[in-house]
Amino acid sequence: MSAAVREEKRAARRAAALRASALPPEAWREAGLAMAKTLFARDEWRRAGVVFCFASAAREPDTRPILRRALAEGKRLCVPLCEGGEMTARAVSSLEELSPGAWGIAAPGKDAPRVEAGEIGLCLAPCAAMDRRGVRLGRGGGYYDRFLPRLAPGTPVFALCMRELLFDALPAEAHDARIARILTQDGVLPAAP
Fold first, then answer.
1. Where are the alpha helices (DSSP H) in the chain?
2. Which of 10, 18, 53, 84 has the highest CB neighbour count under 10 A?
3. Does this model's pTM top 0.85?
4. 90 in Cβ contact with 52 (< 8 Å)
5. pLDDT along the chain (193 residues), means of 10
6. Cβ neighbours of residue 62 under 8 Å, at least 6 residues apart?
């Protein structure tokens, strides 16, 4: 990564963090509910037998409604487990199986069954920010940039992004994963080509 792009990404993360810090906790909860309602009405949700979704942390849209609904509908629910620089999908049958893991983010135990990325039918990804071209700015660890290319071709991927964290353009490199569907509290925005 060039030093210039690295600095541009740091500046973009700072700008996104400032926007995020201005949002009260109830905004994140309400956004999560609105995103879930939109998602549940879509064919991508109905068709998915295996759902991969992150367990939200502070300053992320609340994903508990999505996690609970996946379990209630009998979908196979997978959540990320990050260890040793790698992110894997791990199946859970209850939210009780999640406990604070890396960086305090709720995660399954290391003994949770591993699910291959190619089995996932729907992937929901977090972001620090998104831009209208589908460039996802993460937290800087590159976990999703390495994980998303392992999904089966054509697997629907949505980035859950607060409208306040949607930028016109963000810095990106060739290895940065792009996400074609941006789910905000206002609905789904297709990324511009």
1. 3-21, 25-40, 43-47, 64-72, 143-147
2. 53
3. yes
4. no
5. 85 96 96 98 98 95 97 98 92 95 84 97 97 92 94 97 96 88 95 75
6. 28, 29, 31, 32, 33, 56
